[in-house]
Amino acid sequence: AVLGIELFKALESIGAYKKVVAASATEPSGLEDIYAMVQESFEGGEDLSDD
User: How far is CA 11 from the centre of its chain?
Assistant: First the structure.
């Protein structure tokens, strides 16, 4: 149990946990928030798409 707690503390300290984003499976709500989080993680926040 102690090892598990230490693992979670280590993950939290390196920023592995992000906020939970609500998204709909049937409507486009929440997709822009998810896209923004992915861009932040992989491209440093810059939007590299052509649109």
Answer: 14
**8 A C-beta contact, residue 4 and residue 12:** no
1-51 pLDDT per residue, tens? 788 888 888 888 887 777 778 888 898 899 988 888 888 877 776 676 666
pLDDT the model gives residue 51: 61
Within 10 angstroms of residue 44's Cβ, the number of other Cβ atoms is 8
* Residue 39: both structure tokens together: 């861009």
Strands (E), 1-51: none
